[in-house]
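During the second half of the funding period, the structural biology subgroup turned its attention to how the target accommodates small molecules. The most pressing case was zinc ion, which had performed well in the primary screen but for which no bound structure existed. We therefore specified the complex as follows and requested a full 3D prediction, including the ligand pose.
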Amino acid sequence: MTPVAAKNKPSTRNVRKKTAPLILRRARGLQILEAPQLARLSWLVHGFSTRLAGVSELEANHDSGKITENVLNLGFTDWDTRERVLNNRQNFFATLKASGMRVFALRQIHSDLVHVVSAANSQLSAEAPKGDALITNQSGLLLVVQTADCVPILLADKKRRAIAAIHSGWRGTRQRIAEKALGRMQMEFGTHPQDVFAALGPGIGQCCFEVGPEVAAEFAAKFPEAREWFKGPFDALARGDHDPNWLPWLTMRPPGHQLPEPRAHLDLIAANRAILGAAGVLPRNISSSVFCTACRTDLFFSYRRERVTGRMIAAIGIR
Ligand SMILES: [Zn+2]
């Protein structure tokens, strides 16, 4: 009602308006997600793959029974052949206009290990080192991370022309992998966080990402603002004591019929946005996917929902 209140409201609305979601682009029969701010950088190639199209054959359970689906699996999984995965990758990289680029990947271990990639380091290209983030400022190299629920994060420093590809599940998030990759860019390339555009790709949403007391406790110990990223009984879980209504219920039940342990829902996108923001990336320079991989298995792979499934790739490179 008052002019003051009216004036206060649009400020949060502006913040939201400024943070563009990722957009779906169709090309060469595929559909890929792009961040508009990254797409505007002429020296950069980037994109997040989706499940659609591709030559892999995944047997999926649907309401109508089992069907075999053609999917764009980009990870070497047990159920797929190497040949098909390579075929899919070739198609995806061509869609990004990254065909001639040298691909650098990781053996992802949910760590906070960051690797600096250079053309001189052929070892790194051949072996895929253990770790969860890659950074470079050299052209002709394509940095990739694989996901199926964890959040893939791409960073681009528009002034120094440096980039990062990051894999951030709850363990990586808890270890601030995005902040560490950015810190390493500062150290190696002189990156200033205010020059960085960040794109957070499709991961499991808060709607579906149920976690137990150990996750709540670890986040509470590491982040003063962690409560804002959880829905459900976060404080009780983090403290290690139970909801007072929960214990009596439990004792009234015969063994084997106990209520499940209380759980909370974690918002990995919100957590990573906050971590990048605290590290100096401007909120308006962070775009993120609005999709939940577990809700949208028509579009994405979800390990938590499907177990036997494919992998998506988030890729970034300097032309
Ligand atoms: Zn969901």
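Two results from this model are relevant to the next phase. The chain has eleven helices and 17 strands. The domain at 18-208+280-318 is CATH 3.60.140.10 (CNF1/YfiH-like putative cysteine hydrolases).
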